[in-house]
Amino acid sequence: MRLGLAASITAASALGSACLDIPEFRGSTKVGYSKDMAGAITVATPDVTLHFPGGSGFHLPDQLKLLSVDVMGHASSPCWGASGTGFAVTPMPRVSGDPVDGGVTASDSALEANMTGPAVVQLTATWSTRWSFAAGSTCSTSTRHSSGGSSTFTVFPDGHIVRHDVLTENNPDMEQVMTERCTCADMPSAPDAFILSSYWAFDRQALPTLFGLGDSGPSSPDPLMPGKMYGVTAPYDTVCFDGPDDDYQVASTWVRPPRPDHGPIPNAAAVGFDTVVSHDVQKAATPMLDFPWDVHGALFFERSNCTAALKRAIDYTAPQALMISTASGTMSSLPSALDGIYGGDPGGGGRPGIEVSDGTTTLSGGPSGPFVVWLKFSGSGSVIVPTATRPGAAIGWYVPQRVRDREWLIWVQDALQPGDTITVRPN
Amino acid sequence: MTVRSLAILAVFALVATLAPGAAQAQAEPDARAQAAAHVRQGQAFFEHRDFDRALAEYQTALDLSAEPSLIFNIALCHDRANRPEEALRMFQRYLELAPDGSVAEEARGDVARLTPIVEKIVADREAEQARQREAAAQRTDADQRAEVALRTAAAANRRARIARYLIVGGGMVAAAGGVAYYLANQHLDRVAVDYDPAQYLDDRHGVLVERNVAYGAYAVGGVAIAAGLVLALTARGADDGARLSAAITPGGAALSVAWSR
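YS: structure for the whole thing
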């Protein structure tokens, strides 16, 4: 064979190469999200960590760390002491993700991540259980008498958490439920009554000092006695807990459900063995315990004093409008009380998001702190990532977060002062 | 009768015709005299076995005198010069002109003697000519086949050369695509940690360009290599060989193509 080697070619590297997929924009993580093998989820901001347990039990948060200190209260009794985070139908045992739950078991339980950051994390814990849940409880004997609920927690970079609870009951046999049949005794303050409660339980040692908003406003909050029940109405449903040496503060506020049929009922600012922040409705024992329950509230964390924390709570209950200008006009928007997002969950099964054109959108108005707006860009195709400009702002002042193809959250780090504008463009 | 006597006979014949004709014409005797002179000269050459010059003298004399016996002498010259065909033709010519001539019998004897010789010569010549024609025909076929083979080989070489260009060029284009792919892959890491949306868009655009260049180069290079392979495999001769090998590389797969001619 004549040797006339014409060529030796390394041709390809292409033939077996994997497709080169460009990662979607992720942005700087402001709120961390992680899930372990057991399904437990941890949501973390620089100062706040919220833990949702995995497994088959209720996935309501069982740990709330502020500066690495678990401030959540944990009860040892199943009877009307709140524990962790959850629902209480006192004197029936509570629904809680806390391991010490008095034997309450979930028929169904799920934890769904609606948003996983980088700016906003939102989780929804859903569950159902039978009223005869507690071993030995005689409150209910019907196996068909059940209840279900969901709690949605929306966590923001500044560590504030907005919570939205829904509780439903299924009682096809019209079972009569009486408090005197329950294993747990009636609450002394509410004989022959069930007290429905969505609550956060806090540890008294971690948060030893309690203030109510009071009539004087956040600049002069009223001292309250931890461990004592206060039958308070607004503004006393907004309280602040102060940590040791003023290291940290937690402000809580609940928004009363707009239903008059169970009220006016005192919102318990503090009950039981520990400091509890809850939104309660007391319902007298009736032949049938049928009730709607749709409440929401928020927690705010500060590292200064309760005045600052309470001001933020007030901003949540009385927010400033955000002005949104597009080519088609200007509209104003308030943050959803259910998730704290401008253009967020409107409730009633409505679709979130503020419709804007695919051109330039200008934001202005008076959000007094960090805020998030949910924009829905018109047109078709995907928005790769929206960009925003703000005069004088440093890099990282905003973080876009994709919800779906043309729907994005824009987290803005700083308040919008009068005259300030932010320009947003889809790309 | 000897040859010599025959040649002399011709001279006598000429001289004999000169004597009574002296009064007939002025020019004719001169010609015949000249013819006689040429005959004698031819005779002399003949005696010295210079048959060609003798033949020339006899031919001149014949032209001057038209004496048939000179044809006989010419035939003798051819015969002695070993040209039997011309000799036979001249003897036959002589017999046509002078069937009762003085040397007619001898001419017939020569004809009888030469005829089979000439026939054999003619037969041999025709056979040789036939053989030569066949050889020529065979040479023509071989030439044509050789020409076709040359053209085929030239075409194969041309295709092989094009194949080399295609494979080498395709390989280079694909390799350039590999470089673009590598760069895009490197830049992906940067895109993944771009926290600023505007920077992300810029870097993403760059990666897209590099990726599309890579994919385009892969496509073009692959097509060129495939076409080159087809050409190389169809253009190669019996002794040619192509080698194709593939291997997994850190960047993907490597395809190596080599052939020899």
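YS: worth flagging: Strands of chain B lie at 241-249, 252-260.
IM: good catch. Also Chain B is about 80% helix and 5% strand.
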